[in-house]
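We modelled the chain as a single entity of 311 amino acids. Its sequence is:
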Amino acid sequence: MNTKTLAYILKRIGLAILTVWVVITVTFFVMHAVPGGPFLSEKSPSPAVRAALEAKYGLDKPRFEQYTTYLNDILHLDFGPSIKQRGQQVSTIIMDGMKVSVKLGVIAAGCALACGVVLGAVAALRRNKLIDRIIMVVTTAFVSMPSFIMGSLLLVVFVVKLQLLPGNGSAQSGPAGLVLPIITLALYPMAYITRLTRSSMLDVLGQDYIRTARAKGVSGRRIIFGHALKNSLIPVITYVGPMLAYIVTGSLVVEKIFAVAGVGRAFVNSIINRDYPLVMGTTIVLAVLIVVMNLLSDILYKVVDPRISFD
């Protein structure tokens, strides 16, 4: 690793740390500025009980002291106790949810990557043909449709009308209950990868070295799989990191729709219940996931294609 590459990586790590700090700071002060506080509900406690609760969770201390204490706790991976789920630590709730969300995300990302690359390559090799137009129309629809609408449509079709799959993604439904959430999460990135692969492959097929290979009599199979497809996957590979982060963080609504016990569902419930420590902890963890994935993607781009300059 040369000096320039090392300097770039250190710079990106520094920017990543700064970004995470900004997210933590903004999240902390925004949550503490919400009117009413975490104990506001239809059955609000008396002033004496409320004061006791604020003292228990350290909310009676000066704001800056709370902030510095929170930063120190985060450095030790301690997000504090949940206000609504008594007796449980926020870090434990998040970790339990992440096990499910990451499992869904990895499977959905794998399906999106495999299907997207195949469909994109087929569309590029059959440019302007009927199959190309069909793939482009379908992927445009998937890219344009929000995940909560797609999830609702899948529920209506496969659960209500056809009754082929369970609409509940809980553990009681088994693997079948995860089919619809995985499809819902995979459709958008699959469509994006399809379009990205098609565009990249068309660009590669027009390069001089491809024409030279054809002129030399290199077989079409070798040109497609040994040169065109291999080089066209560089943008796709660098998209994998952000895609996985998008799928995990974008599962918030999907997990709520299909009752999947992941971090997304826990996050939505924490907002509804005004569970501030859980809201802040989940926001920070998801933000860190996005920052880390983008950082790895930037570094991977250089590893995959050494021609990329870090100037």
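As a brief sanity check on the tokenised model: The radius of gyration is 24 Å. Residues 90-125 form the longest helix (36 residues).
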